[in-house]
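Sample intake sheet
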Amino acid sequence: MDSLIETENLFLREITFDDKEELFQLHSDPHVQQWTGEPVVKSMKEIEQSIRGRRNDYRNYGYGRLAVIQKETNEFIGWAGLSYLPEFDQVDLGYRLKKKYWGRGIATEASKAIIEYGFNVLNLDEIIAIALAENKTSIRVMEKIGMTYDKQAPYDEVIQDAIWYRIERENYLAGVVKTV
C-alpha cells in the first residue's frame, strides 16, 4: 500500500481511477450527499471528472483529498484530505465516508492525521473546514480535532448558512489547540 499518511487504523493515499466504483457508491448515496450540499452523483462520467480534478490538485498544490483505506480489511471507506479553495484563498479540510462507517471515529482519526501532515509536512499556516449548519456530526468532528468556530457565512449561492471552523499552525505547534 503506497500510503501518504498512516494512522493506527487507516491508510490515506492519493485517489486513483481504480477507486471510481467505490467513489461512485459513496457519492451516489443520498444519505451521504444530504450533508454535503452537493447533488447525488448519477454517472460514472461525473466520478471520472472528479478524479481528474483531484489528480490535478496533487500536481498543482502538492496535496488533495485522499482515499481512506481501513488497514484491517484493506477496504476503501471514503475520502478525507485537504483542498485548496481559490475563491477564498484557503485550504479546506474535508471528509466523506460510506454510511456504514459513520459513528466509528474514522473522520476524527483521519482528520487529526491530516492536520498534523498539513502543518508539519506541508507547512501550511491555517486550515479551515466548512459544514452545513445542520450537520452537527461534522461540526463535532471539527471541534474534536481542535478547530475553533470562525463564522457562519455563505459558502456559495446554494449554501448560505455554512459553519466555518479554523485551526492555525502557530497554535497547533504551540500546543494551544485542545483535541478530544
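Comment: The chain has one domain: 5-174. The first strand starts at residue 5 and ends at 6.
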